[in-house]
Design goal:
With 216 residues, the chain is an alpha+beta fold. It is built from seven helices and nine strands. Its EC number is 2.3.1.-.
């Protein structure tokens, strides 16, 4: 469970996080994560008995920029709207790309799609059997776009499928006249960072740290 109490609230009174986690336990959740940015938020969490478990880069791409080119090698894939028939394969691909801490199940996938007022959930498939090779979820909210999640099956990486999915999402956010599109990625995910920088995302000076309570 990601605790979503606004930082401006819990920075003044960290005990609010304890109460929020108690509610979560009553709902059946057993693990709680809190996002923090900036030295003040991090110091408050450490003093409240939380410890850092991961760090994320934050990147933004200005929507005024022209769309990147899609590699010719990506044109063998078919881009289509995700449906309920794709969910099991989407979860399989996602779990093949992310370590267990970040891997999604069906509930987490549904939450990612519903996280913003508008969303775009697309998959790429290949071959006569329509094998699912990757997927991406983009969201819109508050005049900004968000790349919520993207994964390409390791067997199909290196062919430009991720770029095709991202360009499709960027085109969609442009139609909604967003100011910019944001994405987060683990600091140790150098391959993803390299791709985002190549596609003109700009790395922000301040990232996000993920904390969890030292005692459950």
């Amino acid at each position: 469970m990601l605790v979503t109490v606004p930082p401006q609230v819990w920075v003044r009174d960290p005990e609010i996080l304890t109460r929020a986690m108690a509610v979560g336990k009553g709902m059946g959740f057993s693990r709680f994560l809190v996002q923090a940015t900036g030295a003040t938020q991090k110091a408050v969490l450490v003093a409240a008995g939380f410890h850092e478990v991961d760090r994320l880069h934050v990147l933004f791409r200005r929507s005024s920029l022209p769309l990147p080119e899609v590699p010719a090698s990506a044109r063998i894939a078919r881009l289509q709207r995700a449906s309920s028939l794709h969910i099991d394969e989407v979860i399989r691909v996602d779990n093949a790309c992310f370590e267990p801490f970040w891997a999604m199940n069906q509930l987490a996938l549904a939450e990612a799609v519903a996280a913003t007022p508008r969303s775009r959930f697309r998959v790429v498939t290949v071959g006569d059997s329509d094998e699912l090779a990757g997927y991406a979820i983009f969201g819109l909210g508050g005049g900004e776009g968000y790349l919520q999640r993207i994964a390409v099956d390791p067997r199909w990486q290196g062919r430009g499928f991720a770029t095709r999915l991202i360009v499709d999402g960027l085109r969609w956010t442009k139609r909604w006249r967003t100011r910019r599109v944001g994405v987060n990625t683990q600091q140790r995910n150098e391959k993803a960072l390299k791709l985002y920088l190549k596609l003109d995302f700009e790395l922000q000076a301040e990232g996000i740290s993920i904390f969890e309570p030292s005692s459950p």
